[in-house]
Amino acid sequence: MTQPSAVGVLAPKNPLARLGAATIRGISELGGLALFTVFGLRHIFSLPLQIKKIVQQVYFIGVKSIFVIALIGLFTGMVLGLQGYYTLVKFGSEGLLGAAVALSIIRELGPVLTAIMITGRAGSSMAAEIGIMRISEQIDALTTMDIDPMRYLIAPRLAAAIISFPLLTAIFDVIGILGGYLTGVIMLGINPGVYFQRIDASVVLADVSGGFVKSLVFALLVAAVCCYQGYFAHMRPGGFGAKGVSLATTSAVVVSCVSILAADYALTTFLL
């Protein structure tokens, strides 16, 4: 398994040399992450399948995230309903509120906010757990016992993320639209038939499938980045031991969130 280098411990004084060193380090990290992801995905399908471990991870990543995803979806829909109403009423188009809320949530906010919330709740935990296993030499012990750590630790988490993200995104979408209904129809008096009729007329299959494509890509990004940061916590140049795990966890969350937003822009450009 390719490991990242510890370039940067002795940083050169020349600014151009530092820029070059940072570029090489970034490319090395991207290459290591790509290989790490490929190895992890390959082990998902190696026999015998690890069904029990995948179900345990689906419970941790998916089931335990339902409450927070539902809560964020509800408030997001309510805020969109409120803001959308007072914007559309200026143009005499408040009847379009249902379509505005549904399209905003299904196309963008549902996949993105779901991925960011799972990163904060489950992704950080994955990075910390694997990082602690690394610095306490439990991963080395697995290797000594002829157990492949990539198959035992990483593949079930990748598979569980790929299963959980689209399901949680669907829950977010439905509750977000109901949140818009609470604000627009119950509080502000829009006709409920008009609210749902506009949604039915505006949302097409491509909108829904595009949202699920995004959630699958985000699942792979979040799981791979968080596992990678934890797996190589002992290689970080900024600290070792507990500090290395702390830095790895922080880096996992930051890199995952930035990757989600960058990937969202690229996918939106491709899907439009």
TrEMBL record:
<dbReference type="Pfam" id="PF02405">
    <property type="entry name" value="MlaE"/>
</dbReference>
<dbReference type="GO" id="GO:0005548">
    <property type="term" value="F:phospholipid transporter activity"/>
</dbReference>
<comment type="similarity">
    <text>Belongs to the MlaE permease family.</text>
</comment>
<keyword id="KW-0813">Transport</keyword>
<feature type="transmembrane region" description="Helical">
    <location>
        <begin position="211"/>
        <end position="233"/>
    </location>
</feature>
<feature type="transmembrane region" description="Helical">
    <location>
        <begin position="66"/>
        <end position="86"/>
    </location>
</feature>
<protein>
    <submittedName>
        <fullName>ABC transporter permease</fullName>
    </submittedName>
</protein>
<feature type="transmembrane region" description="Helical">
    <location>
        <begin position="158"/>
        <end position="191"/>
    </location>
</feature>
<dbReference type="InterPro" id="IPR003453">
    <property type="entry name" value="ABC_MlaE_roteobac"/>
</dbReference>
<keyword id="KW-0812">Transmembrane</keyword>
<dbReference type="GO" id="GO:0043190">
    <property type="term" value="C:ATP-binding cassette (ABC) transporter complex"/>
</dbReference>
<feature type="transmembrane region" description="Helical">
    <location>
        <begin position="98"/>
        <end position="118"/>
    </location>
</feature>
<dbReference type="InterPro" id="IPR030802">
    <property type="entry name" value="Permease_MalE"/>
</dbReference>
<keyword id="KW-1133">Transmembrane helix</keyword>
<feature type="transmembrane region" description="Helical">
    <location>
        <begin position="22"/>
        <end position="45"/>
    </location>
</feature>
<keyword id="KW-0472">Membrane</keyword>
<feature type="transmembrane region" description="Helical">
    <location>
        <begin position="245"/>
        <end position="267"/>
    </location>
</feature>
